[in-house]
Amino acid sequence: MKITPISFFIVLVLGLSLTTAGCIQEKPGITTSTPGTNGTISQGQYTSNESLVAFVESAVAYAETNGKDKALAEFNDPDGSFVRGELYIYAYDYNGTTLAHPINPETVGLNREGDAGIFVREMSAVVRNGSGFYRFTYINPTHNRTLESKLGYGVQVDEDWWLGSGIYTGPVDLEISG
Question: Which residues contact 45 (CB under 8 A, 6 or more apart)?
């Protein structure tokens, strides 16, 4: 079978068209919320893992530059520079005590081993050697306090405490066994 230049050109154009179509598709969005949206869910808002990492790393840099006390005051401020849409910085010590949480300020100073113990213990273990991701379920305070899946990222600041933030990735379907 002889391939003519026209046939070759058509196959080439078709191949490029298919390849280009796959490369320019939009990323599948993660449904996320933004504080102040009255519990509505907006499609199309997307926070990448890279943005999450950069956000937490900028908070660590802030803490290293400004010291722990000033940093915790900024992280606890619901109108501060570390609350950006669905992203906010939380801080814990390695004993499980909340040091900063701008969305749930009532938890600051409390040891979370009881109510959020699994998350706090496991996330502390993940970040103990530097940094890492952890998937968990948590009440989304910006979505009528519904239980949602969350991807968290944390970084050790020093031997005493760590910072984290996370991306809510959607509702959790709880299976009820009878």
Answer: 29, 31, 32, 33, 34, 85, 86
Beta-sheet strands, E only, within the chain: 83-84, 87-88, 90-93, 98-100, 131-140, 146-156, 161-171
Alpha-carbon span 19 to 17, nearest angstrom: 5
What is the per-residue pLDDT across 121-143, written as a single tens digit (0 to 9) for each? Answer: 788 888 988 999 999 888 887 77
Q: For residue 26, what are the CA distances in angstroms to 53, 89, 139?
A: 22, 28, 29
What are the structural domain ranges in the chain?
A: 49-171
pLDDT tens, position by position, 1-48: 555 666 545 554 454 444 444 433 333 333 333 333 333 333 345 567
Class of domain 49-171: alpha beta
Contact at 8 Å (CB) between 96 and 113?
yes
Sign of the torsion angle spanned by Cα atoms 27, 31, 34, 40: positive
Q: Any idea of the CA torsion for 62, 112, 107, 128, to the nearest 10 degrees? A: 0
Record the pTM: 0.69
